[in-house]
Amino acid sequence: MSVQFSGAVSVFHDRRLPEPASPAGYAALIHAYKLPVPIPRILSAIGSKHRIIEQGGWRIYTPRHAPDASLEGHLTFALKYEGLDLAVLKRLFLTVKEGDIAELVRQKPTGLYTRRIWFLYEWLLDRELQLPSADKVSYVEAVDTDLQFGAAGQNSTRHRVRNNLPGTPEFCPLVFRTPALKEFIAQDWKARARAVISEVPKDLLARTAAFLLLKDSKSSYVIEGERPPQDRIQRWGRAIGEAGRAPLDAQEFLRLQGIVIGDERFVKMGFRQEGGFVGEHDRDTQRPIPDHISARHEDIASLMAGLIAFDHSAEDELDPVVAAAVLAFGFVYIHPFEDGNGRIHRYLMHHVLARRGFNPPELHFPVSSAILDRITEYKGVLESYSSRLLPYVQWEATQKGNVKVLNDTADFYRFFDATPHAEFLYECVRRTIEQDLPNETNFLRNFDSFRSGVENIIDMPERTLNNLFGFLRQNQGNLSKRAKENEFAQLTPQEIEQIEQLYANSFQ
Questions:
Q1: Statement to judge: residues 301 and 397 lie in one domain
Q2: Range of the domain at 487
Q3: Which of the four pLDDT bands, split at 50, 70 and 90, describes residue 1?
Q4: Can you give the three-state secondary structure of 316-377, one letter per residue?
Q5: Residue 316 sits in the same domain as residue 412
Q6: 102 contacts 129 by C-beta, under 8 angstroms
Q7: Is 159 a catalytic residue?
Q8: Residues near 41 by Cβ (< 8 Å), separated by ≥ 6?
Q9: Is 291 among the domain residues?
Q10: Are 450 and 506 in contact (CB under 8 A)?
Q11: At what angle do helices 375-389 and 320-334 cross, to 10 degrees?
């Protein structure tokens, strides 16, 4: 097919450039081949200045970086400077002639980039090009690990490429090695968590863990705008406490949905058999107003198989928090259930962190609590991909007020840039280790000191003591006039003064 690569532009797909520049790499390929695919989070172009500019989702390179205005030129530029965008690459490979890719390889059979292009073509399309196996040259990695996170991988002797992709063709989101993620990893939060608990007595640590589990369970429901009864919160907390003990499979997902939902009378349990979306309905017409459209129900089996395979891989090379973000946010974009997706999505964070040995044994970080405190940022992270995905999902409303997807969108849920998601989750994990864990441990120590002091003053049932503590906490360490005249009328003024001083000593 005849293609034409764009010259300098000021706007590309509604995204304004910092200065007029010529799209390069993935941007150039999307334009030239009219690829219907979510636009990458960061685009590249060639400007006129002799310094690289990074602004507004653009990276403007210098004239000396300009690639040849050809398929090979822009593909090579993309792999060299932009890393892998598997969704764009697959749509491109489906669009260009098979012979065009084969010819690139024939022209440069030992080339580092042509061998990667050749491998990625066959891996993504599950289709072999009419080419002989590569000569015995040095292996090159499929994922440039200076740019993105990869797995340990296996050698593909046919291409002389080391397949270090962290997933399968059914599910393989990727994450860039940003300065923020490099710093998080260098700080070794796994070791820091163990240092925090190293001097905590076992009984106190067990109580801390139990409280944090309950706090996380409750927060996960609150994020969904629900106020369930205490028994459901506790049941979900127990499920979180078991996270990571076994690898995932379809039956485990169904079990988790059953725990989350509780009352199944008004929810169709199991994987969806129709469309799905996140958003609102028009008040007058009941027409869907989606913020996110879920994967087609016809694609759920394949997508979930890929997600489960990703979990089973347990690659030591992939950072546990990065892996947790990929799995959890990949799941929530697929949205395989009619209800319960959000809570299971956050459960998966616990599952991966526990399964890959990141959190200390028997202790689960209250990630949902940290998310709840940063709910606006959390929604922004979810929208970082949903907003780019939505324009490329063709849909129509159904009579039931649902959506029916009209085009093939499966690859958009298999392959996406999970970098913002990994950075956000790492920040949540950092907060739980740095603040929640020591704060809760200190609180329990202080409460034990307060309780012991009260018991030395007066014999009091535990329920009454907890009630006393609640009144003091609500009133900045002082018993209110109402409490003195009613619930604790039997305390003497001297006892009240001693108890208030105990509270001050313990908590202030």
A1: yes
A2: 458-507
A3: low
A4: CCCCHHHHHHHHHHHHHHHCCECCCHHHHHHHHHHHHHHHCCCCCCCCCCCHHHHHHHCHHH
A5: yes
A6: yes
A7: no
A8: 57, 384, 388, 417, 419, 420
A9: yes
A10: yes
A11: 60
> How far apart are alpha carbons 472 and 183 in whole angstroms?
42
The letter for the amino acid at 363 is L
Tokens of 102: 């084969």
Domain assignment present for 453 = no
Residue 447 domain-assigned?
Answer: no
Residues 265 and 410 in one domain: yes
- Report the run of H or E that residue 53 belongs to, with start and end: strand 53-55
Instruction: Clarify whether residues 124 and 227 are in a common domain.
Output: no
Mean pLDDT of the chain: 92
Question: What is this structure's pTM?
Answer: 0.92
Q: Of these residues, 65, 74, 335, 421, which one is catalytic? A: 335
Has residue 79 been placed in a domain?
Answer: yes
**What residues are designated binding site for ATP?**
339-346
Tokens of 267: 């929810």
| One domain for residues 56 and 186 | no
Same domain, 403 and 296: yes
Highest mean pLDDT, choosing among 141-155, 199-213, 252-266, 482-496: 141-155
Question: In this predicted model, what pLDDT tens digit does every residue of 396-414 receive, in sequence order?
Answer: 999 989 999 999 999 999 9
In one-letter notation, the amino acid at residue 23 is P
SS3 (DSSP) at 491? coil
Q: Are 329 and 378 in contact (CB under 8 A)?
A: no
Q: Cα(first)–Cα(last) distance of the chain, in Å?
A: 74
Number of domains into which the chain is organized: 4
Q: What is the DSSP letter of 67?
A: P
CB neighbours of 254 closer than 8 A, spacing ≥ 6?
269, 270
Q: How far apart are CA 252 and CA 236, in angstroms?
A: 14
CB neighbourhood size of 264 (10 A):
11
Identity of the amino acid at 133 = S
Tokens read off for 435: 């603040």
Domain match, 107 and 222 both: no
DSSP code of residue 199: T
Pairing of strands 277-281, 288-293: antiparallel
CATH of the domain at 415: 1.10.3290.10
228 close to 338: Cβ distance less than 8 angstroms: no
Say if residue 257 is in the same domain as residue 380.
Answer: yes
